[in-house]
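From the methods appendix. Each design record in this collection lists the tokenized structure first, followed by the designed amino acid sequence. Records were kept in a plain field format so they could be parsed without special tools. The example shown here is representative of the layout used throughout.

RECORD:
FOLD TOKENS (312 positions):
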């Protein structure tokens, strides 16, 4: 079981994250306890309805964060005995005699932190960790990043992270990282030194990188969107390639002749396989290399081998 913390920037981001966490638990047959503010509970319920999640009513318990806090706070701090009686009692009942897996989403710590009671929030995290030793559960805590700014909050941020098994980055940071990864991948394929292109099930070129266009001398509009047959000098070779790929075969260094824009014939080696989704052919994934460079390497290796034999 895990104790995870998620930092969030906006209520909408939190709503999407928390509702996905709750829905995953319900779909898996877990019993789910949500301890959140009234506005967040409404948002989560709306998201679940939109997802059309089907579950027994007794498997989801939604509680008010401030009311639950009042049930165990004493002198501005969480009282261990009251926490065990009230929160622990609720969790024991939900586990249904220990047979059900338990998933909890809680933002009582966020309420305390937002109110400026950092000490109480950290103490509550400790109480969650203590009770987890008796009642196994997966717990997701959420903290708004509004309260984390400057060096004065750095120690508190680190203290929160230390009390959790998993620390999720802010949703904005995760989105930025994903976008950066996608941009780097796009840059890789667009600017790879090897020609790359996709061909759809109707034979039309769906995409090509710069190296592919440079090899044949075409502009992107002159190449992408056109039928691949326009650029193959030998129709029987093309038909064989497409037939193999549509039958989910891989081809490696398949010799072909392509027609360049200036009318010259380019001898190439094509390596390709196909993307299938639900059994349907989507597009090819083709690498095109100029055969002259391969022939030169083969000739160079042959010359080197010959010289080595003579030297012996």
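DESIGN:
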């Amino acid at each position: 079981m895990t104790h995870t913390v998620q930092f969030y920037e906006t209520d909408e981001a939190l709503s999407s994250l928390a509702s996905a966490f709750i829905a995953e638990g319900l779909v898996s047959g877990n019993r789910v306890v949500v301890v959140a503010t009234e506005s967040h509970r409404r948002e989560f319920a709306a998201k679940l309805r939109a997802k059309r999640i089907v579950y027994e009513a007794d498997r989801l318990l939604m509680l008010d964060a401030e009311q639950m806090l009042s049930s165990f706070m004493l002198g501005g701090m969480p009282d261990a005995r009251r926490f065990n009686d009230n929160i622990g009692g609720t969790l024991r009942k939900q586990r249904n005699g220990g047979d059900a897996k338990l998933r909890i989403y809680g933002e009582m710590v966020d309420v305390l932190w937002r109110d400026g009671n950092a000490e109480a929030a950290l103490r509550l995290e400790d109480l969650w960790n203590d009770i987890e030793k008796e009642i196994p559960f997966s717990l997701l805590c959420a903290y708004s990043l509004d309260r984390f700014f400057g060096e004065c909050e750095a120690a508190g941020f680190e203290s929160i992270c230390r009390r959790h098994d998993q620390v999720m980055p802010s949703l904005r940071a995760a989105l930025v990282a994903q976008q950066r990864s996608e941009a780097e991948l796009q840059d890789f394929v667009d600017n790879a030194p090897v020609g790359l292109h996709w061909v759809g099930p109707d034979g039309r070129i769906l995409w090509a990188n710069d190296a592919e266009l440079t090899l044949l001398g075409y502009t992107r509009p002159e190449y992408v969107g056109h039928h691949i047959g326009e650029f193959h000098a030998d129709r029987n070779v093309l038909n064989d390639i497409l037939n193999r790929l549509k039958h989910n075969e891989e081809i490696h260094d398949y010799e072909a002749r392509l027609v360049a824009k200036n009318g010259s014939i380019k001898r190439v080696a094509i390596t390709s396989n196909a993307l299938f989704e639900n059994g349907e052919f989507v597009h090819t994934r083709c690498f095109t290399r100029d055969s002259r460079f391969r022939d030169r390497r083969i000739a160079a290796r042959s010359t080197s081998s010959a010289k080595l034999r003579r030297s012996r």
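APPENDIX NOTE: The two ends are 68 Å apart (CA to CA).
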